[in-house]
């Protein structure tokens, strides 16, 4: 594969995002403190990191109604419309997952002709979920839709939701989105102290079984350390965008859409793979023209300077292969036949096909989930969806005596091949009971009763 770089990521990019503090140690200290001291520790860290220490972190029904009333009606209407989209897609996902029971024939023979061996699958929702809705720079309403609403469509009976204050104020629109999404409890609490409280439980916050939602490096590390004690949705890294474009792509669209994701933070990879040097060069020029008039230029410009890349390849087949190597979170296709990517690509968090579609739609309004794999995790997992909130469990029942006896013989042989004598004897016992086999290890007195 021949690759020509029109723009490299900065050689110091990896160093530029290296933490200046020991994130892991800080997070462990917070979790240990919350585990030992509960609400007292939670309040201490909320005061330290967010300068926030209300009488209660949990919002009352009156608090929630006040937040709803503080939102413009258009904001409420937009939240409801977006949530209808998210709910419809999540429900379609749920409807695609089915319980089933199957009667199998695991053996040859038998006297009554019945199979009598039933295997089944059930999909049970997680009992309690903690949803973390980030704040800090912006009120991230969409994260409420993606985490809380999707859990509710999956059938989760209890969702605890946390979001931080923004500059010491209640983020009214975020609270409205959390409430309308179906949160059973809303706590105005952020950072590691929030995810730790939900994961281990305190006097005022019940322990959950699963944590969902994005966050900063400290929140992500908290989820990593708590994994096992609770489940988590994904290990979240910085937002990523990769665009595959051919000569038909509009460079202004390419430049605009790259910057739309670069504004998430100062460490967002924004990559263009194109078969057209003209499109690549024009995109670079337009990004430099657009940045000065972008209100988030400080973040987007830093990401572009440090992590932006423009690569030219000889063919779309090479572009598909290279894009799969990146395994980006968001992959936008700006080619003459965008649906070709569905056949040619295999590693991505989400595909956005054609100029009429953009990653920002997925982030904010279209209905698919925006909690997606980063840092090449798309090679082995998808994003957050209804299925993440379900536990697929199995059951089995043998009702046919002959079937049980034949399975017993098979189990005895299979277990002894692995030198598991206790397992083998469980099989032997059924073979003796239902087929009349004889085994020396069964006491004589018990053989008579069988």
TrEMBL record:
Query: Which cofactors are required for activity?
Result: Zn(2+)
Where along this sequence does the record place binding of Zn(2+)? 261, 264, 363, 423
Residues binding NAD(+)? 132, 193, 216
Note the superkingdom of the native organism.
Answer: Eukaryota
Q: Which reaction does it catalyse?
A: L-histidinol + 2 NAD(+) + H2O = L-histidine + 2 NADH + 3 H(+)
The alphabetical list of record keywords is: Amino-acid biosynthesis, Histidine biosynthesis, Metal-binding, NAD, Oxidoreductase, Zinc
Question: Which GO BP terms, alphabetically?
Answer: L-histidine biosynthetic process
Coiled-coil annotated residue ranges, if any: none
Q: What Gene3D superfamilies does this protein map onto?
A: 1.20.5.1300, Nitrogenase molybdenum iron protein domain (3.40.50.1980)
Q: What does this protein do?
A: Catalyzes the sequential NAD-dependent oxidations of L-histidinol to L-histidinaldehyde and then to L-histidine.
Name under which the protein is recorded? Histidinol dehydrogenase
């Amino acid at each position: 594969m021949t690759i020509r770089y029109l723009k490299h990521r900065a050689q110091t990019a990896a160093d530029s995002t290296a933490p200046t503090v020991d994130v892991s140690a800080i997070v462990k200290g917070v979790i240990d403190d919350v585990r030992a001291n509960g609400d007292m520790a939670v309040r201490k860290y909320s005061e330290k990191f967010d300068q926030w220490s209300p009488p209660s972190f949990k919002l009352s029904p009156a608090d929630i109604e006040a937040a709803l009333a503080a939102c413009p009606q258009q904001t409420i209407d937009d939240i409801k419309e977006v949530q209808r989209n998210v709910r419809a897609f999540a429900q379609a996902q749920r409807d695609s997952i089915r319980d089933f029971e199957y009667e199998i024939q695991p053996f040859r023979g038998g006297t009554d002709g019945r199979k009598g061996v039933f295997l089944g699958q059930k999909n049970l929702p997680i009992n309690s979920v903690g949803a973390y809705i980030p704040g800090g720079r912006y009120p991230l309403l969409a994260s409420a839709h993606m985490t809380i609403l999707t859990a509710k469509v999956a059938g989760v009976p209890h969702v605890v939701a946390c979001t931080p204050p923004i500059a010491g104020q209640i983020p009214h629109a975020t609270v409205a989105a959390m409430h309308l999404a179906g949160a059973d409890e809303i706590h105005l609490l952020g950072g590691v102290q929030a995810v730790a409280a939900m994961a281990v439980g305190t006097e005022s916050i019940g322990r959950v079984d699963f944590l969902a939602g994005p966050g900063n490096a400290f929140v992500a590390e908290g989820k990593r350390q708590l994994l096992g004690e609770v489940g988590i949705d994904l290990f979240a890294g910085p937002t990523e965008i990769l665009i595959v474009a051919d000569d038909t792509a509009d460079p202004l669209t390419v430049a605009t859409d790259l910057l739309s994701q670069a504004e998430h933070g100062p460490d967002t990879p924004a990559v263009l793979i194109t078969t057209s040097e003209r499109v690549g060069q024009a995109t670079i020029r337009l990004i430099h023209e657009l940045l000065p008039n972008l209100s988030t230029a400080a973040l987007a410009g830093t990401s572009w300077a440090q992590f932006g890349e423009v690569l030219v390849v000889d063919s779309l087949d090479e572009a598909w292969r290279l894009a799969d190597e990146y395994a980006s979170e968001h992959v936008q296709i700006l080619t003459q036949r965008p649906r070709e990517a569905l056949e040619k690509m295999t590693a991505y968090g989400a595909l956005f096909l054609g100029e009429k579609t953009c990653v920002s739609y997925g982030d904010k309004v279209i209905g698919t989930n925006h909690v997606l794999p980063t840092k090449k995790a798309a090679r082995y997992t998808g994003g957050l969806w209804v299925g993440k909130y379900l536990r697929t469990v199995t059951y089995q029942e043998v009702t046919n005596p002959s079937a049980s006896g034949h399975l017993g013989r098979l189990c005895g042989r299979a277990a002894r091949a692995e030198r598991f004598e206790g397992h083998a004897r469980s099989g032997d016992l059924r073979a003796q009971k239902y087929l009349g086999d004889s085994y020396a290890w069964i006491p004589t007195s018990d053989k008579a009763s069988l």
